[in-house]
């Protein structure tokens, strides 16, 4: 297909993590197990929240959204990556590559906004507990969740359209595990300064703005906790935010490092490892963090397991 004397590619070749067969098989087994744990863990978190009425609160409503985002994000990248581990020709059609970029970038943006929303929820819970149920009512929670999904999707749509309008010429080898934004932009055979500026601007809007809101929320939260007189009260208030704070630190850190300054971005290997972290590790860690460090979730698990044990005993007799 010829346009303006430039050749446009019909498919891309993903170079992936390794060309060694034994390494690829080992990674296939490892990542398949982790993907299955991701799907199962997040599904169980959503199911638990649905079944236990004590978890029908704004915090767990947003956690449900976060679990759905994690599973969807992993699914947008990992199955294709697993298939390519066992394939010699690691091709991905132009349209599939664009779709993968749209979904992965959109879901990543949704997660960042969701974490900011969850920080606001924790701010209200700690700093204004008496009015928590009045402020964080069902209507507001729904609007905040919708805002997260819409803002992330719109940003991703804009970036995808801008990126895939670039002429790739005969460049079709993407040195990455997926159709990642910066990796695709690097294939263009024209000046991409405007694209890099657009990436930086959208990163500031969709990444740094939520991050600043998270910081402001936690400055207020820490200030309020320090004013609590009793040690037990401070400990309880801190545990209210501990799980969310752990996820925030993990989630925002490397993305800020990668996207805010595309011109001085990390090495290709670092970018691949960062993508593996977000596609494989974060979706696995999130349900574990919220399960291990949260007394309410652990209590709900114990209750559910007790009910299942009773049911099995009755069936056995």
UniProtKB/TrEMBL annotation:
Entry keyword set: Cell membrane, G-protein coupled receptor, Membrane, Olfaction, Receptor, Sensory transduction, Transducer, Transmembrane, Transmembrane helix
Limits of the G-protein coupled receptors family 1 profile domain: 41-290
Molecular function GO terms recorded: G protein-coupled receptor activity; olfactory receptor activity
Keyword Chloroplast included in the entry's annotation: no
Subcellular localization: Cell membrane
Matches recorded under InterPro entries: GPCR_Rhodpsn (IPR000276), GPCR_Rhodpsn_7TM (IPR017452), Olfact_rcpt (IPR000725)
Pfam family, one: 7tm_4
Transmembrane segments: 25-48, 60-78, 98-120, 197-219, 240-261, 273-292
Superkingdom assignment: Eukaryota
Membrane topology, from the record: Multi-pass membrane protein
Presence of the UniProt keyword Membrane in the record: yes
PROSITE patterns (alphabetical): G_PROTEIN_RECEP_F1_1, G_PROTEIN_RECEP_F1_2
Cellular component, GO annotation: plasma membrane
Function: Putative odorant or sperm cell receptor.
Family: Belongs to the G-protein coupled receptor 1 family.
Record protein name field: Olfactory receptor
Gene source species: Panthera leo (Lion)
Name of the encoding gene: LOC122213573
